[in-house]
Amino acid sequence: MSARPHEATIFTETGSPVLVIQAVRRRGDKLVIEGKALGSMYMDMLLSPGDFVRMFRVICSWGLIAFLLLLPFHVLAAVFRTRALRRPAGGGH
Question: What are phi and psi of 92, to 5 degrees?
Fold first, then answer.
């Protein structure tokens, strides 16, 4: 299952999509996140300034910091895995 280039998908541990974020826009004093929840329900999710600050406090954790610091290594590992899968069998001379 691959996402379009301008979408971000959040999955469960079993691989089911929970939320597909398709766009983030501002509408007045609210942040609007356009997307699809649970694979079928299209909706606009609204964040007020207060909710945004609370969300920011929730996601700013040591887990997020460690993930961001290790992100370049995970991206490189994924690139090397993809290249290894594309090589023909038998060494590919």
Answer: 65, 55
pLDDT digits (tens, 9 = 90+) for 42-67: 989 999 999 988 988 888 888 888 99
Is the pTM here over 0.90, yes or no? no
- Yes or no: say if 15 and 4 are a contact pair by the CB < 8 Å rule: no
Question: Which phi and psi angles does 31 have, rounded to 5°?
Answer: -100, 125
Q: In what order do the strands lie in the sheet with 41-47?
A: 8-11, 17-27, 30-37, 41-47
CB 33 within 8 A of CB 24: yes
Number of residues assigned to the chain = 93
